[in-house]
Amino acid sequence: MRGRVLGGIMLEYFSRLAAATSQDDAWKLHCEQMAEFGFDRLLFGYARYCRPDGSDRTDDVLFLSNHDPALTRRYVEDGLYRHDPVLNWAARHVGARSWRDAMTRAVQDDSRLEKSRSLHSLMNVTAGYSIAFAHPSARCRGFIHLAARPDLDQDAVDAIWHRDGRLIETMNHILNLKLMALPRSGQRAPLSERQREALEWVADGKSYRDIAAIMGVTQATVEKHLRLARGKLEVETTAQAILKAAIQNQIFQD
Question: Which residue ranges does the record assign to the HTH luxR-type domain (predicted)?
């Protein structure tokens, strides 16, 4: 009986997720579904082009969370995530991990563990699981932290995972793929239609002269659109602008 009920719930979830047209809609749906398993606070992070020296800009990383917004900002903008032993594990591995295992390994680094425990205490996080996603490039990194309700300890969470972990992990992998296919939410300065068009024609191999003729403008105007696009994306070259706009799903969406 439980299998039939669960199957119906999952079919409804996957149908609604497939129909979602924005990252916000997909994220809200997923948070609601994970809460049904006992994970009521989630943190998702994804970077498609991690720098070799590890100096990734937080603006270039997609973070989604339903934790308290002020604490989430502290975690991200103040760089506290860099001291999170669970996230450090996720950056080097693929698969699911009990927080019991990740925190045990972090005991060897007292300073990192102290900062992490302090933040987890503020966020009222005591137990959970994390999933690190597999990606085709070594420079891609993605993870999701599933924090359990405050009334659940790690033993209870591990029991939930023993029962439903395979399903939960699959749902989160599919969410990750869905989010990567949708335009990024909360762009600080989204590209204009003409800026997107100019970048797309450059990506297609057209010269500035060709693009000017196609768009019905002067070559100087094409160069202006590309310059403004580089500025909004905070990159130096048009090639970098195309890469970053593609990462953010701002081009080739029609």
Answer: 184-249
Domain boundary among 130, 147, 181: 181
pLDDT in tens, 90-132: 777 889 999 887 655 555 555 555 665 666 666 778 899 999 9
Q: Find the length of the chain.
A: 254
Contacts of 41 (CB under 8 A, 6+ apart): 65, 66, 67, 123, 125, 147
Q: What is the count of structural domains for the chain?
A: 2
Residue 187 lies in a domain: no
CB 219 within 8 A of CB 212: yes
Q: Are residues 118 and 153 in the same domain?
A: yes
Could you tell me the pTM of the whole model?
Answer: 0.73
Q: What's the domain range around 215?
A: 193-247
Instruction: Enter the tokens of residue 104.
Output: 């045990």
Low-confidence ranges of the chain (pLDDT < 70): 1-5, 48-60, 86, 102-122, 136-139, 185-188, 254
**CATH number of the domain within which 66 lies:** 3.30.450.80
Measuring CA to CA, which residue among 185, 244, 251, 242 is closest to residue 47? 244
Task: Look up residue 195 and give its amino acid.
Answer: Q
Q: Which residue(s) pair with 170 in the sheet?
A: none
